[in-house]
Design a protein that fits this description.
This protein is α/β, with parallel strands linked by helices. It contains 8 helices and 7 strands; from the N terminus they run ββαααααββαβαββα. A 7-stranded mixed sheet has the order 1-7-6-5-2-3-4, sandwiched between helices. 38% of the residues are buried. The model has no long low-confidence stretch (mean pLDDT 95).
């Protein structure tokens, strides 16, 4: 662990999920392929697009509409609908097809392998701290077996923008109104969504260096950086 700022007393923890508590890359690759195959079965005219083409199409949409970057559900639904429309499928059928493809995606997207140690660490932390999940993704926390550890799970919706917007941080803070912002420690791998987002609202942050984020992507230094959840857990239990 490496400290970049003085750590203030921590009284509540929030965790990012994907690529912070588990490796989400292989999960997404399998889910993307499964959705592509499903779409081809339902709409054979789309067969010229591989999973990589759908991904490129989705990224292009995100670049055109940056606000979708913090709401993975809406981004994926919009991309699926627009992709089907591109192949000449009428609007109503495209929307229905996108909904069906998204449901198929979610079945594979929730096939996450959680290491036993992660369960042990979260269970130990939940005995000492209120824990919250703040994720821009759409994983079902109960379906992957982590729901019992969190007092609240916050994900983008029509009323909540994703990180690094303040919405989900503020919603979590409203559940612990007695705490000052600096009493929160947000744990995540994204330099922008997690580290910048947390510091924008006055929270402390713990950057997981084993995820997708890289040091050159940091907009602001975290409170601390760690690579091993066991060591972070041990430290937080010792200081509780």
């Amino acid at each position: 662990m490496q400290f970049y700022r003085r750590l203030m007393p921590v009284q509540a923890l929030s965790f990012d999920l994907d690529d912070t508590l588990y490796d989400n890359v292989p999960v997404m690759l399998r889910a993307e392929q499964a959705v592509r195959d499903f779409v081809v079965r339902e709409f054979p005219q789309t067969a010229t697009w591989q999973a990589a083409d759908w991904s490129a199409h989705r990224m292009a949409l995100m670049r055109r509409e940056p606000d979708l970057a913090s709401n993975m559900t809406q981004l994926r639904l919009r991309a699926l609908t627009a992709g089907l429309q591109f192949f000449g499928i009428d609007d109503d059928e495209a929307r229905a097809g996108a909904e069906a493809a998204f449901a198929h995606f979610m079945a594979h997207r929730n096939a996450v392998d959680i290491a036993p140690a992660v369960h042990e660490h979260l269970a130990a932390l939940a005995e000492r701290y209120p824990l919250y999940a703040l994720s821009n993704g759409n994983v079902n926390v109960d379906a992957i077996g982590l729901g019992a550890y969190f007092q609240g799970v916050l994900q983008p919706s029509d009323s909540l923008r994703g990180k690094p917007f303040a919405d989900m941080f503020q919603a979590a803070a409203a559940m612990q109104p007695q705490l000052a912002p600096y009493n929160w420690l947000h744990v995540g791998d994204s330099p922008s969504a997690d580290i910048l987002g947390a510091h924008r609202v006055g929270w402390q942050s713990a950057w997981f260096t084993g995820g997708l984020g890289r040091a050159e992507h940091l907009h602001i230094l975290p409170t601390l950086a760690y690579h091993d959840l066991a060591k972070l857990t041990q430290f937080l239990l010792k200081t509780a």
